[in-house]
Each structure stands twice: as structure tokens, then as C-alpha cells.
Amino acid sequence: MDLITTQQALPALRKRPSQSRSRALVEAVEQACLRILDESGEDSLTVARIADVSGVAVGSIYQYFPNKDAIIALLYERVLDQEAEQLLRVRERLRGVPLKSALREILGNIVRVETRLFKLNKAFHLRYHSALHLGMWRGPYKTAGEFIEATWLPLLTMYKSEITTPHPELAAYLLGQGLREVIRGVLQDIPEQLESTALQDSLLAMAMGCLSPCTFGLSSRQ
Fold it and tell me: Taking all residues of the chain, what is their mean pLDDT, rounded to a whole number?
């Protein structure tokens, strides 16, 4: 599989705090950002407002953060680190589970994480969506192709007795990349459907259709 898609980079700090005083400053800024988002929403989030809530001078904030997005990115790093640990537990639960049940669990977790990230800051999430990829987070993958070959293809191999598609690599791509883009479209266009049972049922049907096209009345052309 030859994909050239690369991960987008999140905005970064100017420098990482090394001493306890500087770590406390960055923590105060981060918590102030989270508090403003929770209480007033993303439209109220400005560096000046963060300085007011955190008690940290604007100049001191800019010593560590080049802009507001770099502060928000730190919140997303924390959430993704938490969810990466949860993802390991999800994968453990998949052992011995039938294909359809495994896909429902995987897709349900993807939707749950996307919903959590989206609610944190909608504009930021949509702007940096390609970087906020839980499966690739802090992983060794440089491209979407590497990620799919290391995760989705082995998963399909595990369930080869339940799969009829003659194109497993294409199916792996559609599952690993295509469905994520569908979810991104839902985030942008109909976010009210994010947590609906209908969305998860539809995603599961799409996934099963990729893996067993004949079951869904589709011809498998060579």
C-alpha cells in the first residue's frame, strides 16, 4: 500500500518547562484555558482572558506559547495520552470476539473519542483533525499507509474466515482512513448525529459492506 498522507503537526510550545516554577506556570495557563472553554465557550478564549483567569502575565504566556492554538494543543495532548491508554484496553477486549462485534467496539470507541475531542474545541478539532488521530498518536507511523498496514491489515487477517472481499488491502484502507473521513464530515455538517445509534449502526454496515460485499448484494469485480 503506497500512501503518502502524512500527519499534520499540532502547534507546539516555544519551549518545554523544565523547572517547577515554569511547569506551574504552564499548568496554570492550561487549566485557565480549560476553565474558559467549560464556562464560556471557545468564542471567549483569548490570550488576554487566559492571562486574567490564570494570573499569569501575557508576556510570560508568550515565553512558552507562540499563540492561542499552542495552548489549546496542550489540552488535546493530555486527552489523547489518556485515550491512548484506553485504546490498549479496547484492543485487549477484542481477543476472541466475532468480527461484527469487534468492529462495533472499534467504531464506537472512535466515535466516542472524536466526540470528546470535538466538544473540547470544535474549530480547533476541525482545523487540526489529521493530527488528532488516536491510532497514530505518539506512534512510529509516518504515513496513513504505515498505520493501516500495522493495524487494520493484521486485524483483517485475524478474521479472514469471516471476510469475503477479494481486495483486503482496499478494505483495510476504507476502514482505516475512509470511515474516519466520514466521521469528520459528520463533525462538520451534522454534529448532532455524533452520539446517535443510527450513526454507529450505519458505520458498522459500511464496514461490513467493505469486508463482505456479496452479503450486501454487491458484485466483487476482479
Answer: 91
Residue 91 resides in a domain? yes
User: Among all chains, which residue has been given the C-alpha cell 474549530?
Assistant: 123
145-166: pLDDT as tens digits: 999 999 999 999 999 999 999 9
Q: Please give the model's pTM, rounded to 2 decimal places.
A: 0.88
Is the CB of residue 88 less than 8 Å from the CB of residue 138?
A: no
Q: What is the CATH number of the domain that holds 199?
A: 1.10.357.10
State how far the Cα of 57 lies from the Cα of 174, in Å rounded to an integer. Answer: 48
Look at the chain and report how many structural domains it folds into. 1
- Rounded to 10 deg, the angle between the 68-93 and 47-54 helix axes is 80
Q: What is the dihedral of CA 157, 106, 89, 138, to 10 degrees?
A: 90
The residue range of the domain holding 74 is: 20-216
**Residue 202 CA neighbour count, 13 Å, CB half:** 12
Q: Indicate whether 58 belongs to any domain.
A: yes
